[in-house]
UniProtKB/TrEMBL annotation:
Acts as a transcriptional regulator. Probably redox-responsive. The apo- but not holo-form probably binds DNA. Binds 1 [4Fe-4S] cluster per subunit. Following nitrosylation of the [4Fe-4S] cluster binds 1 [4Fe-8(NO)] cluster per subunit. The Fe-S cluster can be nitrosylated by nitric oxide (NO). Upon Fe-S cluster removal intramolecular disulfide bonds are formed. Its main location: cytoplasm. [4Fe-4S] cluster binds at C13, C35, C38, C44. This is Transcriptional regulator WhiB. It is found in: Cytoplasm. The keyword RNA-binding does not apply. The gene is whiB. Transmembrane segments: none annotated. Its cofactor is [4Fe-4S] cluster.
Amino acid sequence: MMTGTDWGRRGLCRTADPDDLFVPGATQNRAKALCNGCVVRTECLSYALDQHIEYGVWGGMTERERRALLRRRPTVVSWRRLLETARFEHEQRQSTAAALSRTS
Ligand code: SF4
């Protein structure tokens, strides 16, 4: 598990122009496309949610989408823990499904 913001060095946007990610309005949907293949998307999104970062695209979500998510789930104490747990469980299910398909 990475700590702090170590994940930032592995982000796909590391070499991108910040002006491409911190854009207003509908232009953010284009910026989100960059996040689709990013290996640290979970870390990035949970950081933005836990820190209540209000501007820019983080982890494939616009500021507006993050605000809506925070309003829908006001009791979440740690987005990092929640999203990492969800990712782990998803990977476990995929691994189990792959093992089952090999045996059938
Ligand atoms: S998820 Fe998107 S904003 Fe976050 S590090 Fe990756 S490319 Fe950058």
